[in-house]
Amino acid sequence: MSASRPSKAELDREFSELYRTHLRDVYSYAYYRVGNHHDAEDLTEQTFLQAYRHYERARAEANGRPLRPWLIRITHNLAANWFRDRSRRPQTPLEDAQPLVAPHGTEELAEERADAREVLACVAQLPEDRRDALVMRFALGMDNREIARALGRSEGATKVLLHRAIRQLERLLAERRGAPEGRAGEASQGDAASAGDALSEKGA
């Protein structure tokens, strides 16, 4: 016997919890895409309005899987429409964003901000799909399966995408730092972690 259909009150309670749980991630991703708080807030609102309209169907199709990738995919598509309809580019380039998490001391703050800006400047040079994958992985903490669902790719393709994104980021950072040819990997072993720190700070 199939389970009974949830009542509207039950769906509303579930959706309210979904909203509270994932509001920050949706807003952070929207901000990465459009580069300013005002439009990020608008995209976040549109994401949850659209999600609410289709929540019952998405809930059933998810079959118990987390719904965060579904929400991020909605935001991703809305941001793409935002750029296409307005022929815009992000108003705040990725590398110009101010890290919002303060370290311990003034010198450490200056050094970490310089490192973060360097990483973000290189992330901004990546193709959009690689940049998005890195943002989802390091800023939002999504695993390969979640990223695959958010981007509409297979897990295998997503793993390859992330690998290529990290390798390209390593090369860009090595070139920026003037690493000798053949030592790019050695010079940038910690760059994936640096990217994670920089992206996490930017999205805070």
From TrEMBL:
Q: What Pfam families does this protein's entry cite?
A: Sigma70_r2, Sigma70_r4_2
UniProt keyword Transmembrane helix present: no
Where does the RNA polymerase sigma factor 70 region 4 type domain lie? 117-169
Which InterPro entries does UniProt cross-reference here?
Answer: RNA_pol_sigma-70-like (IPR039425), RNA_pol_sigma-70_dom (IPR014284), RNA_pol_sigma70_r2 (IPR007627), RNA_pol_sigma70_r4_t2 (IPR013249), RNA_pol_sigma_r2 (IPR013325), RNA_pol_sigma_r3/r4-like (IPR013324), WH-like_DNA-bd_sf (IPR036388)
Q: Name one GO biological process term.
A: DNA-templated transcription initiation
Please list the residue ranges that the record marks as compositionally biased, kind Low complexity: 185-198
Q: State the source organism's domain of life.
A: Bacteria
User: Keywords in UniProt for this one?
Assistant: Sigma factor, Transcription, Transcription regulation
Q: Which GO terms describe its molecular function?
A: DNA binding; sigma factor activity
- Positions of the region Disordered? 177-204
Q: Which residues form the RNA polymerase sigma-70 region domain?
A: 18-89
Which protein family is it in? Belongs to the sigma-70 factor family. ECF subfamily.
> Can you name this protein?
RNA polymerase sigma-70 factor, ECF subfamily
